[in-house]
Write a structure and sequence with these properties.
globular; 8 helices; 172 residues; mainly alpha; two-stranded antiparallel sheet
Length: 172
């Protein structure tokens, strides 16, 4: 009986994995943004995340973003220092800058995927959409009231002068 239950569980996991394959291979799209938003309980964020994907990558698969990555090693060192990343042997500090279709700083977001996950994980659109949705929902909880306010805080950091101005505006 226990073996039968175990086999049924395995069958369910295989079925779930097969159903997820199209999303893993999908390019950035409204459906991927919506799935990422639903994954973190923030379905309201789907349209806004799709706008972010357009601004960051023109809805294309992308790895490291061009000139923005001069600070990849700095992002990596900061994330290790505060405990967001473990200093794993396979990590190349230069790869931890802004990357993926949603423009995430890999060093600050990959921590949610488990210890020693690679920076390139944020290049996978559904993974990036889920991580971006997580960040987007956190910004809303902090009081960033609309797309403009969240976009500035997401892009420049919630503690930046521009983001603080937006937060003041939101709090009226």
């Amino acid at each position: 009986m226990v073996d039968q239950l175990h086999d049924q569980d395995r069958g369910g996991m295989i079925a779930a994995a097969l159903l997820a394959l199209p999303l893993l291979a999908a390019p950035p799209s409204p459906e991927v943004s919506a799935a990422g938003a639903r994954n973190v309980g923030a379905p309201w964020a789907a349209e806004e995340l799709h706008r972010v994907s357009f601004h960051e990558s023109r809805h294309s698969r992308i790895g490291l973003h061009g000139g923005l990555n001069r600070g990849g090693a700095d992002f990596y060192r900061r994330a290790v220092r505060v405990g967001w990343l473990a200093p794993c042997q396979q990590h190349d500090p230069e790869t931890w800058g802004v990357r993926g279709p949603y423009g995430l700083v890999a060093a600050y977001h990959v921590r949610h995927l488990g210890e020693c996950a690679e920076a390139s994980a944020v290049d996978i659109p559904i993974v990036a959409a889920t991580l971006a949705a997580r960040a987007w929902a956190a910004l809303k909880r902090r009081g960033f009231c609309d797309y403009q306010a969240r976009r500035i805080a997401y892009k420049r950091g919630a503690g930046s002068a521009d983001a603080r101005e937006e937060l003041k505006r939101c709090r009226g």
